[in-house]
Amino acid sequence: MRKKGFTLIEVLIVIIIMAILSVIAFMYYGRFLERMRIAEADNLIGSSVQSQFRYRVRFSRFTPVWHKLDAVPPVIRFPTADNDYTNGETNTIFYTRGGSTKPEPNPGFAVEFEQDGADNWYVVATRVGRGNYTYKLVRAFENNRIICVPDVSNEQDVEICIDYMGVERPDQLTPDPRQP
C-alpha cells in the first residue's frame, strides 16, 4: 500500500529554489526602487531648471530659494510642521520623500541650487536617507544633461551611476561638471 504525498527531498528542493528566486527578486527590487527615486529626482531637476529660466526672465537673475519659483512642489507652498519647508527665505534645499527633520530622512534626494565663481548655476540632487548610496545628480542650467557623480569609494554608487549613465565601465562616467 503506497501513501500519497511529498518526500522530504522534494520539499527541500522546492524550498531551496524558492529561496534562490526570492534573493534574486530582492536584489532587482532594490535596484528598481533606486531607479524610481532617480526618475523622481530627474523630473524635479528638469522642472526646476525651467522654472529658474522663467524666474530669470522676470528678475534678470537666478535664485537659490525654492519658494520663489513658479513651479515648486506643493509642500513648499503649503508647509507642514514636520518638514523643512517652513524656513522662509532660507529654504534652499528641497527633500524628496520627506524632510530632514527626522533622525534619518526617508530614502530620496536633497535638491539644491549651486552657483560657482564664474556665475554658472547647477541643480545638485544628493542621495540621502537609508541605504548605502551617496551619489549626486548634477545638471548645469545651460545643459540638458544630468550627470551621475558617484562616491568612487562606494561600489553601489558606481554601479547605479554606470546603470543610469548607460556606460559599461567606471572610467566612462562623465566627470562632475562643477569641477574645472
Q: What would you say about this model in short?
A:
This protein has 180 residues and is an alpha+beta fold.
Please indicate the count of domains.
Answer: 1
The best one-word shape is elongated
List the total number of helices: 3
Distance from N terminus to C terminus (CA atoms, Å) equals 83 Å
Q: How would you sum up the major sheet?
A: 5 strands, antiparallel
| Sequence stretches where pLDDT stays below 50 over 5 or more residues | none
Widest sheet: strand ordering: 1-2-3-4-5
Average pLDDT, to the nearest integer?
85
Spell out the helices and strands N to C.
HHEEEEEH
* Alpha-carbon Rg, integer: 22 Å
How much of the sequence is in beta strands? 15-25%
Query: Could you say which structural class the secondary elements and strand pairing correspond to?
Result: alpha+beta
The count of DSSP E runs of length 2 or more, i.e. the number of strands, is 5
Helix content: 25-40%
Structure explained in plain terms:
It is a single chain. The protein is an alpha+beta fold. The chain contains three helices and five strands, in the order ααβββββα. It has a five-stranded antiparallel β-sheet with strand order 1-2-3-4-5. The radius of gyration is 22 Å and the shape is elongated. It starts with 7 loop residues before the first helix and ends in a 15-residue tail after the last helix. The model has no long low-confidence stretch (mean pLDDT 85).
